[in-house]
Amino acid sequence: MFKEHAVMLGIAPIAWTNDDMPELGRDNTFEQCISEMALAGFQGSEVGNKYPRDPERLHQALALRGLQIASAWFSAYLTVRPYEETAAAFCAHRDFLHEMGAKVIVVSEQGRSIQGQMDTPLFADKPVFTETEWSALAEGLGRLGRLATEKDMTLVYHHHMGTGVQSAAEITRLMELTEPNEVSLLFDTGHLAFAGENPLEVLRVHIPRIKHVHLKDIRPEVVDRVKREQLSFLQAVKAGAFTVPGDGCIAFAEIFTELDRNEYTGWFVVEAEQDPALANPLEYAMKARRYIREISGL
After folding, report:
1. Assessment of whether the complete model's pTM goes beyond 0.90
2. For residue range 126-173, what is the model confidence (pLDDT) as tens digits?
3. Strands 242-243, 217-218: parallel, antiparallel or unpaired by DSSP?
4. Could you tell me if 178 and 148 are in contact, meaning their C-beta atoms sit under 8 angstroms apart?
5. Which of 72, 94, 120, 283 is the most exposed place for a label (fewest CB within 10 A)?
6. Could you read off the pLDDT of 86-123 as tens digits, one per residue?
7. Which of 60, 163, 82 is nearest to 115 (CA)?
8. Distance of CA 295 to CAs 220, 254, 266, 291, Å?
9. Smallest Cα–Cα separation from 238: which of 101, 154, 106, 119?
10. In angstroms, rounded to a whole number, what is the distance separating the alpha carbons of residues 157 and 106?
């Protein structure tokens, strides 16, 4: 399965230190994080909040451990702020990633997002974009996508819980409103399952647009509790809604088969934001690495 060198396997630093809740993993250092990534057998990483932003320093630290940068999250505010504000920040982010050798730029619209609000119910208060907001988002993403191509890079849109692009229908609408040569899709298994969608079905619909993959699993009993008790996204994370592939309920073998059949090339990034005091990052990284090797051969 998967042609040699077609797929690179990375892991996100959010398991070591949470970007939205820095108190989770506060004592875990950048050096510990990337050393344990390498020890677990991964080839790369996305960028976390403890990573140095000086490309020379970051290159040196990663090269010592045989790691590369796959991408990094970018928060867009195209629905609530002037385009120029987002574009200026995007270009700086793009240039940093370009210096690090990344080929894709992960973008998520954070206008009216509730994902960072500790006490806002995730499902009851999910934002729903107006027609005007959809238009602003689609037009703005297209313009950002063209800025990405100036550096021979690709914008990949990250559908995410607690945002205006969460469901399969919302993903489809965004893909229909944007051009394939400007906006691609980040396929995140965990966020789809959390939203109540079938990741395999979404994959089959959008496989031509998918240029980046996040491998994340869910604990269905925790997701049920989130719905029942009207918990927020951050409360869901702290409760353990997410976990690594092989530790939850998602059937990844079918997903890998479909990606392979369509000759996917690019990064797979294991991502499971958990409380590192409860879920040891190295232990879970090794668990994910073993599982992926067993069912995909990677």
Report:
1. yes
2. 999 999 999 999 999 999 999 999 999 999 999 999 999 999 999 999
3. antiparallel
4. no
5. 283
6. 999 999 999 999 999 999 999 999 999 999 999 999 99
7. 163
8. 22, 10, 18, 6
9. 119
10. 6
